[in-house]
Structure formats: structure tokens, C-alpha cells
Amino acid sequence: MSESASKTGRKGVPAEGGRPCRRSVPLTVAALLLVHALLLGWSAYRHSPVDNEVAHLASGLSHLQLGRFDLYRVNPPLVRTVATLPLLLASPRMTWRTYDADPLTRSEVSAGIDFLYCNASRSLWLVTLARWACIPFSLLGGYVAFLWASRMYGRGAGLLALAMWCLSPYVLGHSSLITPDAHAASLGLTSGYCFWRWLKQPGWGRAGLAGLTLGMAESAKFTLLVLYPVWLSLWVLYRVSEGRSALWRWARETGMMVLLIATSLSLINVTYGCEGTFQPLGVFRFQSLLLTGIDTPQRVPDGGSNRFEEGCWGHLPVPVPKNFLQGIDAQKSDFDGKKWSYLRGQWQMGGWWYYYLYALGVKLPLGTWVLFLLAVATSIFGTSRFDRCRDEIVLLLPPLAMVALVSSQTGFSVHSRYLLPALPFLFVWTSKVARTLTRHRWITWPVVGGAICWSVVSSLLVYPHSFAYFNELVGGPSHGHKHLLGSNIAWGQDLLFLESQLSEHPEARPVGIALSTAVDPRLMGIEFSLPPVGPRSGAASHRVRDTGAGPRPGWYAVDVNHLQETPLSAVDGSGGWRSVITSTCSYRYFLRFEPVAKAGYSIYIYHISLDEANRVRRELRLPEL
């Protein structure tokens, strides 16, 4: 075959290695990354701070201004420290009057609220700057997904993996925040790619790079601690499968693994400023059952305990910063106790092992699921070389370990975002279906192409409200609250959209607002009060008859958390927060009215007339107005 024929392939279609493809691929990659950055930048600007963001922001400032890492120790500090770097140029105001280093106090929330009040309306712009500073993390994740998929399956797969990352509603929703979940996913994938490159061609430089990226990943999210045992297991499996039995090879690569782990630990220490590194294990006071050795949370003493304080283990120097270890303990302690959890309209104390799998089922586009199932079918019925199967284990074992880890913690099931670090590995693996296009399998073209288009269009139709995305299987984001609540749909992100709605309708004054958010709407010029509560589901109406409760005429804005009786506090309109959902009272009666508008997909706006109020009061057996 001539050179020109080899480059054009059959029927004149450019082959994957031809010149036209080589020119177009970099442009396509750059275009997708540019679109991704613009989508993230606009979403970051349009959404109000979510609950955890203000706590992360204040904690990041404490790291830079005070050189301390006590605040928000349940998450490593890398992402929030990067986020707050540009804020130093903006000279934000801050008071540390509520700062408390006690691991049980969790004063990052009060510090975040102080940050908002100190900077007033300017705080929204500061949050936007911090969000923009984190966009490079997501761009890195997309580019690495392209590189890894391209090396394994070809450039077509690389572009598909990049598109799945850049246009995924999960990624668009969380990468536009300063919370660490999506950014840790980028760093975890980068670490995995560097480790895979080392496995393919061992070298001291590649081992050091893998260790550096692993340290960055561990400095972003504790979930990624699973990568340590996963990397060690993959190294052994990879080498055993190769049949390498020479002792000198094992010794050499053992030295490289030591370098890899040592480099990652060094990076963790640098991230924490080496705060409290090499303290004896016995001096720590822990709260989790794992590290106290106590069988129930109720028996852990107020000052904590330590199962290692007696014996030789207590004298062992810990090679990580004190707040890194204390953060792991605090995170594990959170899961030891049971909390109220919600799934498909059901509340229960404690969570479900299948909660995160269900969340992925309803939060990922159906087109993405079709691509994933095609990849499964390709793996089962296709033929793959042994070395490719071995490489795919490197892709699949990390997300499987992460799913197993988070699903095993059934103390509560609230945040599906805990599984975000697993997604980029699955995107890269799923991109193998692109080979059916480059190999001209005409039967699968419509299915694969249709699934890609379905996934992209479904995501962009909801943008910029990607945070609240639910797929068509459950009726889209308008019905998402029937399946998941909290950070899956309503985390306080739509307050700016509510402000726009109220500005367009000045007649909607006064307004009653019930929101579970750390941001006081008064910072945006919204004066409000709490709506009157009504009888809780199943509660006797006479229990609230004399409290002035029940529907009343007026304008109201209620988030879906309160509509579903989530036990969260609400901003009360006078600078405080109040528990409005009790054993007898709630805002569920608003579901008996038809909303006149919505702010995003999380806040329902109601205009209740006197007749409508009395109709519902009769249904609730409350006295008419």
C-alpha cells in the first residue's frame, strides 16, 4: 500500500495517524478546554457561595495569614490554600474572634460567617476570585484524561474522555466551587497517570514525579488515601504478570517505590508547613473508634483517647503533620455516629451501602451510562491484548476501591460528591468505545454517536445549574429533590438567582424566606423574615394551633431541603439561624401550593392568596384566617 493510501485509509477517510488528524486534534483539545474554562468561570460568577465554601475560604485564609491548619482539618488544605492566594492581593477583612483549635469545636463554620459579615457584599466577589483560582485544577484533569485515554486507546478516545470530563454536569457543578471534591479528582487522575507511566517504564525520575503528584492528591482529599495500598497492589500484580523474577529488578523498583512514597509524604508536609511532624503517636488524642479502640462513640471521653499511648507504638514518630492525622481521625469520627439520611423520599437514622451507586445512577447523564455499558460490553465480548487488560486494571482498581471505601461508611449518606474522585478514571476507561468509530464499525456508530450527543445536550440544557443536575430517568432536576437532597441539589447556590427574581418583581415584598445556607440574604439587600411553620407530616394539627402557624397570604421562597423536612437550620432574617424543622413543625405544607417561579432548581417561590391559604388551612384542620 502506498504512503498516501495508508494515511487516508479506506474510502479516503483520514486515518488516526494522518496529517489532518494531527492538526485538528490539538485544536479540538484547546477548544474543549477553553469552553470548559468559560463554563466554569461563568458558573462561578453566577452562583452564591455554598455552605462549605465560606468555611473553606476562612480556613484557607487562616493557613496563609496565621500559618495554622486547625480549621477544617477534616479536609486537607491544598485546594483552599490555592483558592485564597489571590485574595491576599484583594486585602480581605477578617476577624479571628471565633477561632478555636479544639478538634471538637469545628469553628471553621463560624469563621466563615465572620468572613461574610466582615466583607459584606464584597464577599461575593472574593468568593468568585477564589473559585476562578481553582479552575486550573479542572483543566489539568481534562488534559490528563485526554493524554491517558489517547495512549491507551487512541486520539479519538482521548477526545471522548476529554469531552466527558469537560461537559459532565457533575464536574461543571463542583469544579466551579472551591470545595475540594472535583479538584481532588483531577489530582488523583494525574497521580494515577504518572504512576501508570512509571509502571510501563520504571525510572527514578518517573517515580519521583508519581510521588509528587500523589502527595498533591493526598493534600486535597482524604478519600485518596486508598491510592497508597492500591498503588502497592498494582505494582506487585503488574510485575508478577510480567513474569519478572530477577531479584535485582525487584530491589531496584522497591527503592523507587520508597522514593515515591517518601516524596508524597514530603509534599504533604510542605503543604501543612511541617506543622507538628514527627510527633510521637502516643501524644495524640483521638475521637474515632478506629484510633481510640473504643467500641461505641458514646463511650469516647470528652478529651479523646488513644489506643496507642501504651506500649512501643506510642513512641513511634508520625511522619505526617499533626493536623493531617487529626483530620483523618475527625473525618472517621463523623462516620462513626449515625445521622439522618434521605433517599427517595425516605428518612432514616444512618445511611445505605448502595446510596452512592444510586446517586451516580440519577446524577450522571443517561448518555454517559450508555457509553459506560457499551464499554462493559466491549470488554466482555471483545478481544483485548493481555498488556491492555493489565493496563485497564490500573484504571479500574482505584475507582472500585473508592466506591468500596465510601459505601462502607454507612453512618450517614448525604453527599454523593464523595465519589467524584472515582469519575475521571471511569471516564478514561469508558472512552475505549471510541475505537468502534475509528475502526469503522458502522453498526455501532449511531449508538455511540447518539450517546455522546445525548450526554452533552442533556448536560448543557441544564447549565448553569449543573450542580442540581438529574437525568431524564427521574424527571430531570425539577424532580431531583424526590430522590436526593442537600449538596446533591440545594446547597445555597441559587441565592443570586433569587435576588434577581425579587428585583424583577418589586411587588413581592415583604417576603418570607426559608433557606439552609451560611450566607445571609441581607448581604444582597434582601430583607426578609421566616415563613410561618405548619404541622409536620403525621403530627396533630392541634399541637401548632396556638402558635400562629400555618399558611398565610404573601410571598415566600423556600428551598427544597425545607420542603422535604430536612433537619437544617434556616437564616432567620435578623442575623441568626434557627431550627425550624421540629418533631411537630415543618414547611412541608408549601407542597400543597403551586409555585409561581423557581430560583434555579433549589428554591421555590410562592405567592399565596387568602383563599389559597384558607383552603390549605382547612385541609390541615387549622382555623381559617
In short:
The protein has 625 residues and is mainly alpha-helical.
Q: Strand order within the widest sheet?
A: 3-5-10-9
Classify the helix fraction into a percent range: 40-55%
Mean pLDDT: 90
pLDDT < 50 runs, ≥5 residues: 1-20
Q: Nearest-angstrom radius of gyration?
A: 26 Å
In DSSP terms, counting alpha (H) and pi (I) runs of 4 or more, how many helices?
24
Hey, roughly how much beta strand do the residues contain?
5-15%
Helix vs. strand class? mainly alpha
Report how far apart the termini are: 89 Å
What keyword list fits this structure?
single chain; two-stranded antiparallel sheet; globular; disordered N terminus; 6% strand; mainly alpha
Q: Your description of this structure?
A:
The protein is mainly alpha-helical. The chain is 52% helix and 6% strand. It is built from 24 helices and 10 strands. The strands form 4 sheets. It has a 4-stranded mixed β-sheet with strand order 3-5-10-9. Strands 1-2 form a two-stranded antiparallel sheet. A hairpin with a 5-residue loop joins strand 6 (569-571) and strand 7 (577-579). Helix 2 (19-46) runs parallel beside helix 8 (155-166), helix 7 (135-153) packs parallel to helix 19 and helix 10 runs antiparallel to helix 11 (204-218). The longest helix has 28 residues, at 19-46. The N and C termini lie far apart (89 Å).
